[in-house]
């Protein structure tokens, strides 16, 4: 499987970004309000562009403090100004959340308790439609996940679909354990199939943890393919040039997301040789 | 105006800020996460973007094992949900299973409409259609459409809890180690969770001293007809 280095740059589609900050009185303890404030910033509020991410791990402690204080001060300022502006323009802004949702992302992730989609991405209530299952699998005959994709694409018109796996996934490890796991068998079998598709590459990795980590990545890429095989994604992309499908992996050791740089248009073209469900 | 690409990069860049903040605030945070999970709660909820479970509960990464689908439907033969339940109850030994519906649910609204939703969705929503058929008169009597949607969401939770209580794995864990099953409703307009009183403690635990679900940084308290969140 080719992990192309080029990040897909979407057509010049202009979208409204919706960074809503939902204020709930019962969620106002310091930690949450702080992380909420971080999350309600726009990319411009970060001191560097996402392409030159600051690596806080290589900083001296006093520099980290300074960096965080600066980013937070900035973020607070932006947030205050933004909230005040929203309220002055539309006093009902925060009440509108109950009127409907308009998320731009569909997140397909693992059920693992350590990966709450909204918190790790800094996205707000209302920003991301979420499906989470064991080992972030997307199976053709699973009406549960397929219903989520259909609803998100056709009814909510999400712009991005993210399949997010994580290193050290218990589901992936369980799938490769020689053991009868009852009702888990039919579900976890899909991961063994991913291994079989990439048997040579995986067998060549001597270190067990490295091999599992690679299987986690390959599983994410395979599930991205399965998302792209769906009729709703193919039809919507032909018509609207969205959604775009991305494969990410979350690492517990540093809390960072890794983009596997799926070349969406190329994968889509490859897939449609056999799985084309559009009438073009 | 922002480009599509900006929207996408936003999530990645704010993840970087979040990771930096968390690690700075508590250097043990990520090493601890990497060492494994033992969440006290299995959350079964709706995919709706307005119901971020860990945030709603005021909990932290590591506290809540999560499955979210369209309209939080618990279908007995759905392998996806069944695998989640099996993994959470048998392998992670969660102490609470919380099935959460919510007000203004799009799936609930769709089940009250008389039009096809399309694709695989109509098949998925069949259990909810059955709930509607079984309660047609009572639902018709509700004049306000949002109130009717909230009511079918409650009935859906009740039906889902019945399916959970009939699940062999859950039954065994309830008997052997006191696993608790709760049915709750999240009110999007107020941000509050209400215990509907279905499950292992019928009647919403009325008169009971209250049940606490402890996370690492906060706890979910079931008391009387209410469930609330308290920070530690
Ligand atoms: Zn996992
Ligand atoms: Zn819903």
TrEMBL record, chain A:
The domain of life is Eukaryota
Reactions it catalyzes: hydrogencarbonate + H(+) = CO2 + H2O
Which coenzyme or cofactor does it need? Zn(2+)
Indicate which residues the UniProt annotation says bind Zn(2+).
110, 112, 166, 169
**What are the record keywords, sorted?**
Lyase, Metal-binding, Zinc
GO CC terms in record: cytoplasm
Q: Quick one: a GO biological-process term for this protein? A: cellular response to carbon dioxide
Q: Any idea of its EC number?
A: 4.2.1.1
Q: Which family does it belong to?
A: Belongs to the beta-class carbonic anhydrase family.
Q: What is this protein called?
A: Carbonic anhydrase
From which lineage does this chain's organism come?
Eukaryota, Fungi, Dikarya, Ascomycota, Pezizomycotina
Automatic annotation (TrEMBL), chain B:
- Enzyme Commission number(s) of this protein: 4.2.1.1
Q: Which GO terms describe its molecular function?
A: carbonate dehydratase activity; zinc ion binding
Give the organism the record lists.
Answer: Schizothecium vesticola
Q: Which cofactor does it need?
A: Zn(2+)
Q: Which UniProt keywords apply?
A: Lyase, Metal-binding, Zinc
Question: What does the cofactor field's note say?
Answer: Binds 1 zinc ion per subunit.
Q: Which residues bind Zn(2+)?
A: 46, 48, 102, 105
Entry keyword Metal-binding: yes
GO BP term (any one): carbon utilization
Read off the PANTHER family from this record: CARBONIC ANHYDRASE (PTHR11002)
Q: What does this protein do?
A: Reversible hydration of carbon dioxide.
Task: Read off the InterPro entries from this record.
Answer: Carbonic_anhydrase, Carbonic_anhydrase_CS, Carbonic_anhydrase_sf
Q: Name one GO cellular component term.
A: cytoplasm
Which reaction(s) does its UniProt entry say it catalyses? Answer: hydrogencarbonate + H(+) = CO2 + H2O
Database matches in SUPFAM superfamilies: beta-carbonic anhydrase, cab
Q: Which family does it belong to?
A: Belongs to the beta-class carbonic anhydrase family.
What Pfam families does this protein map onto? Pro_CA (PF00484)
Know the name of this protein? Carbonic anhydrase
């Amino acid at each position: 499987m080719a992990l192309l280095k080029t990040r897909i740059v979407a057509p010049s589609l202009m979208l409204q970004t919706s960074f809503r900050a939902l204020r709930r009185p019962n969620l106002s303890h310091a930690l949450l309000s702080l992380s909420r404030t971080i999350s309600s910033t726009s990319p411009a509020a970060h001191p560097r562009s996402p392409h030159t991410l600051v690596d806080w791990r290589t900083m001296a402690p006093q520099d980290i403090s300074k960096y965080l204080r600066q980013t937070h001060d900035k973020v607070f300022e932006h947030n205050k100004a933004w909230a005040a502006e929203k309220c002055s323009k539309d006093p009902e802004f925060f009440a509108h959340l109950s009127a409907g949702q308009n998320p731009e992302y569909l997140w397909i992730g693992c059920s693992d308790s350590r990966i709450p989609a909204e918190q790790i991405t800094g996205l707000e209530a209302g920003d991301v439609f979420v499906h989470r299952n064991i080992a972030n699998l997307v199976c053709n005959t699973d009406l549960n996940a397929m219903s989520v994709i259909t609803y998100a694409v056709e009814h909510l018109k999400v712009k991005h679909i993210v399949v997010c796996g994580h290193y050290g996934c218990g589901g992936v490890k369980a799938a490769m354990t020689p053991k009868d796991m009852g009702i888990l068998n039919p579900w976890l079998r899909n991961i063994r199939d991913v291994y079989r598709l990439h048997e040579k590459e995986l067998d060549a990795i001597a270190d067990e943890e490295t091999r599992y980590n690679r299987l986690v990545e390959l599983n994410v890429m395979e599930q991205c393919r399965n998302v792209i095989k769906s009729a709703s994604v193919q039809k919507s992309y032909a018509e609207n040039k969205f959604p775009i499908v991305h494969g990410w992996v979350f690492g517990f050791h540093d809390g960072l997301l890794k983009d596997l740089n799926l070349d969406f248009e190329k994968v889509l073209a490859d897939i449609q040789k056999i799985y084309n469900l559009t009438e073009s | 105006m922002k480009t599509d690409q900006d929207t996408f990069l936003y999530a990645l860049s704010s993840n970087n800020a979040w990771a930096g903040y968390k690690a700075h605030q508590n250097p043990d945070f990520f090493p601890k996460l990497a060492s494994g999970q033992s969440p006290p709660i299995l959350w079964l909820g709706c995919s709706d973007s307005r119901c971020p479970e860990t945030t709603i509960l005021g909990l932290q990464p590591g506290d809540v094992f999560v499955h979210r689908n369209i309209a939080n439907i618990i279908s007995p033969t759905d392998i996806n949900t069944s695998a989640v339940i099996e993994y959470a109850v048998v392998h992670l030994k969660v102490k609470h299973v919380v099935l959460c519906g919510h007000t203004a649910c799009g799936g609930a609204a769709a089940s009250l409409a008389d039009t096809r939703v399309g694709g695989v969705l109509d098949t998925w929503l069949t259990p909810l259609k059955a709930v509607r058929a079984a309660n047609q008169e009572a639902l018709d009597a509700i004049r306000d459409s949002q109130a009717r949607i909230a009511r079918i969401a409650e009935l859906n939770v009740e039906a889902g809890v019945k399916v959970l209580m009939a699940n062999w794995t859950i039954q065994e864990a309830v008997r052997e180690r006191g696993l608790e099953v709760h049915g709750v409703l999240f009110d999007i307009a107020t941000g509050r969770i209400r215990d509907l009183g279905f499950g292992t403690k019928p009647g919403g635990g009325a008169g009971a001293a209250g049940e606490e679900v402890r996370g690492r940084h906060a706890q979910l308290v079931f008391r009387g007809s209410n469930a609330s969140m308290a920070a530690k």
